[in-house]
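Review form for a predicted model. The reviewer records the input and the model, then writes brief findings.
Reviewer: anonymous (R2)
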Amino acid sequence: MKILISADMEGATGVTWPADVMPGTPQWERCRTMFTSDVNAAVLGFYDAGADQVLVNEAHSTMRNLLLEKLDARVEMLTGRHKSLSMVEGVQHGDVDGIAFVGYHTGAGEEGVLAHTYLANSITGVWVNGTRASEGLLNAHVVAEYGVPVVLVTGDDLTCVDAAGYAPDAVTVAVKDHVSRYAAVCRTPARTAADIRAAAKEAAALAVRYEPVRGGPFAVEVEFDAEHLAMAATVVPGVERAGERRVGYTSATMYEGIRTFKAVTTIVSAAVEEQYG
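Model under review:
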């Protein structure tokens, strides 16, 4: 059994506001320890259940946040940016039996702690075939094309609700309860570690590959908080205006769809101006 863990940070234990997840801040330094604790708990739970291999793919920001030296000695970690499948890199090689989304969060325009989709504040909504999409939903579509089930999702309570829409069989763990975008009722690391470890042990039973799902075509729409960002996004081939602040494109597969989405977010990030956005 090989498990891939896609590790994001906004949904980690104790994380509630931007400085908690911004590399280089004192708060980030503190919170990366709790982030590492969440991930290690999932690692231990999967090994408790008999996993042969666990690969952790860092999926937050610079993708250099986890403390490798604090992880179980049996694990391997893929760290750093510029990967073909970004947050779910590693799923494409045909040897992964299940994937866990650890530290995930809700999508742009939705309620949830630090809710966003890829960009912190320039994107106000993403839709796939008319359904509002979180990063979890986008990545679930990608891994389905490789026949890999999402077996575990951790984050705030609303992230667990969101997961029911794209991975209804997955085991979920709420490490905190949403109060506002920048506030939550948080459990202690000792408690969340125990909860995540137990959930991962249970979730391992779901790690069974299936026939790849070809669910395309995928019609993707992305809405921004400023008109000029929509204009900038149309530099990406196949991306067209779908409204004053909205663009759209259609991809035959979600492999193509997520790569186009990544290109859109890269272009848009470069088009954001200080203060005015």
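Findings: The longest strand covers residues 171-180.
Further findings: The chain has a mean pLDDT of 98.
Recommendation: see findings above.
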